[in-house]
Amino acid sequence: MAQKTISYKVKGLSQKAEILLDRWGVPHIYGKTEEDMFFAQGFNAARDRLWQLDLWRRQGEGKLAEAFGPRFLEKDKAARLFLYRGDREKEFRSYHPRGKKILNAFTDGINAWIDLTKADPKLLPLEFKLTGVVPGYWTPSTPLIRIFGLTRNAGREDALARLVHLMGAEAVEKMHVFEPPAKLSVPEGLDLSLFDGRALEKYNLARAAITFRPEDLAAGIPSEERELYARLLSQPQSDQAENSSASMYESNNWTISGKLTSTGAPILCGDPHRAHTIPSLRYIAHLSGPGWNVIGAGEPAIPGISLGHNEKIAFAITIFSFADEEDLYVYDTNPANPEQYRYKGRWEKVKTIEETFTVKGGPPVKARLAFTRHGPVIHEDRAHNKAYALRAAYLEHEGTAVYLAGLRLNQARNWQEFLEGMYKHYCPSLNVVYADVDGNIGWFGGSLAPVRPNWNGLLPVPGNGEYEWKGFLDTKLLPCVFNPKEGFFATANQYNLPEGYKYVDVSAREWTSTHRLDRIKEVLGSGSKLTVESSMQLQLDELSLPARELAPLLSGLSSPDPEVNKALNLLRNWDFVLSQESVPAAIFELWSSYLHDTVFPLYLPAAARFLFGSGDRRILDKLLFSPDAAFLVFGPNPTAGRDAALLKSLEQAVKYLKDKLGSDMTRWTWGSLHHMKYEHALSAALSSGDSNRDVLNTVSAPKGGDGFTVNNTGYRRSDFRQTGGASYRQVMDLGDWDNSVAINTPGQSGDPKSPHYEDLFPLWAEDKYFPLSFSRKNVERVTEEIVILEPK
Q1: Are 777 and 28 in contact (CB under 8 A)?
Q2: Cα–Cα dist 50/42, whole Å
Q3: Which phi and psi angles does 376 have, rounded to 5°?
Q4: 234 Cβ contact list (under 8 Å, min separation 6)
Q5: Where are the alpha helices (DSSP H) in 5-98?
Q6: Which DSSP state fits 143?
Q7: Which of 67, 12, 62, 61 shows the shortest CA–CA distance to 40?
Q8: What Rg, from alpha-carbon coordinates, does the chain have?
């Protein structure tokens, strides 16, 4: 195909490096040395994602105020509470024996592109011009930022403490699924009435999305446009409440032995689910250099690949909810000196660090950050002589910057080397499935799990010395499986500790439901010969097990409303597939939503409903199949009351659909509500007739599925817009790497001027993939642009 070539002369490179960009925007990076290869990876990431990278760095390092002014100072202070302050050399070595050199090279590459933008500001993305910000330089420590990690469970501790205060421990336990089973035992001396939502304000502030105001923009922006631009540049807030019992960070992966495939070679699949943003969180790349030849997806701020394959093995990730890396400690402070807290019967002084913050438009500001022996002080309640601190494994243990330990997996050549890499893969806790070209498959549950000898980590604890970690579980004792007799192994964030596992009590207690996993196992265990194509179909599977499970409750129900009866008949005679064309799918989704609204308030005081969220689907099923006296508000006995609640919720669903989509029930398709659309931050500033508007935005694509289908398309209820799911999918063919496929969305680039800004969205919206070329021959066949980097 036609190719164009671009050349850059850059400082920091020892020899010529090549970046072959294929037609889907995937960079295939070839370096003659390891350091040149990672230099080119950083250079290319900055070339595609500079605005995203700069905000990531500023938020993580607490340097937003220097770019945007004093309004961001408190957010910066909060962020710096969560910097890793341990032995930096030990930290570098944890990720890879040459971790420091790799991080130096990667960040030098980012800085080389920044140098080019300083010499030629036309290279800067439009966001920098609107804000007047100049991108800042990276250091080798920048990718070690901790606050973007998927860890647990400080927010849940706070929420559960407040729920127990409102409802009592037994009532809260009834509304939750704890695996392994656990009790909510309130520690002696812990006053739950003091938990009012303020304890985690700094914790949440550090992690919160960045929002802009008109005054944050560049001076040259016309006043009538400033408010619009500020709103459009702001990062969208997640609909997922931090205190929800369900995690939006859900994913699927599976590995299949050649005994079950049509080719006799293993197949390995992964589709990590995260919030859908523009630009995408994921970035696909291919790294080739001495000792390296690995392709797959990572994150643009991190060197290496998080999930993909090299020449010998393939691997894919999902969150493994084994480690509870966080604990909220509450201290009694000295009324005469609030700088002291009680520990083991004595007053102990907090340690303080003075940090300096550069602030746009003003002088530098110095601030004091306080720490107890357990971690940063995140809240002080001087009226009650209390202080709150966060203890976090990722703040006191090296090697816990997210996904960086994937560098070791990138070079693993067999199961033993994979295990050695996983022993140091601390954060986040991950299910990593494995396959190799010799026909082996396996799974390892990677984690850095604190050992709590006398409590389960579900509630905050006093910081008086009675609740101390007893180190961390030896990572060689974590669960793993090699060549399972079933011929496959799959994970979907469900509770998956092997039967008889000795260290089950170390585990966290909250996992997602088994609905996606059960469907995956149903398909993989069907006995048919499995192919790359069948795994692609399974990643896109929209059969709803919750719908299939609830269907028996509809038997015998009827309504005086003929439209409700028609809806009942559609649900009873449905195949339970949440396809975008399906009418019963739309009815079911609305019905189940209203069921949550109808049933859970029977068990919750009004003040608890915000903390509780919408409720766990597993608990809803349990309450509906075993109705108790709570349902007497709807009928003369629990079963009759339950049936009335089912009909009431269905009546509400029918009314909503009729009001929203009209009286013709055949038009009530799920895809007419459920959709996905990416909008560029600047598109609304353009007139409707401006041709650039269509370039900046994707179309609105109808979607099937929901948060419980293998094709996880979780949505916000306010407008049914998909907010999370598989932004990246991979299906790896161990028999022929060039037969592997992948998809990202909406595109590889974050720059609207790039042809790869949203070119993958149509493929993703139509449930399609592109070939993930690996051999140099195939890469060259699909290359559309060659970037040559030469030493300056």
Answers
A1: no
A2: 10
A3: -65, 140
A4: 209, 210, 211, 212
A5: 34-61, 65-68, 73-80, 88-95
A6: G
A7: 12
A8: 27
Residue 723: predicted pLDDT:
84
- Residue 770 to residue 780: CA distance in whole angstroms: 15
pLDDT band of residue 131 (cuts 50, 70, 90) is: confident
Helix (H) or strand (E) holding 6: strand 4-10
Residue 388 CB burial class (10 angstroms; 0-12, 13-18, ≥19)? buried
Reduced to 3 states (helix: H, G, I; strand: E, B; else coil), residue 536 is helix
For residues 708 and 545, is the Cβ–Cβ distance under 8 A? yes
pTM above 0.85, yes or no: yes
Angle at the Cα of 745 from the Cα atoms of 2 and 96, rounded to 5 degrees = 90
Tell me the sheet residues that pair with 5: 786
Place of tokens 């409700």: 564
Token pair recorded at residue 535: 């795994």
Tokens of 581: 């064309």
The mean per-residue pLDDT over the stretch 350-370 comes to: 97
Where helices occur in 540-689 by DSSP H, the ranges are 545-550, 562-572, 583-599, 609-612, 617-625, 638-661
Rounded Cα distance, 412 and 313, in Å: 7
Q: What is the 3-state secondary structure (H, E, C) of 171-223?
A: HHHHCCCCCCCCCCCCCCCCCHHHCCCCCCHHHHHHHCCCCCCHHHCCCCCCH
pLDDT-based confidence at residue 127 (cuts at 50, 70, 90): confident
Q: Which two tokens stand for residue 526?
A: 């069907």
- Rounded distance, CA 357 to CA 542, Å? 50
Instruction: Please tell me the distance from the alpha carbon of residue 128 to that of residue 50, in angstroms, as a whole number.
Output: 9
**Identity at 394, one-letter amino acid code:** Y
Please name the residues in contact with 33: beta carbons below 8 A apart, sequence gap of 6 or more.
14, 15, 289, 290
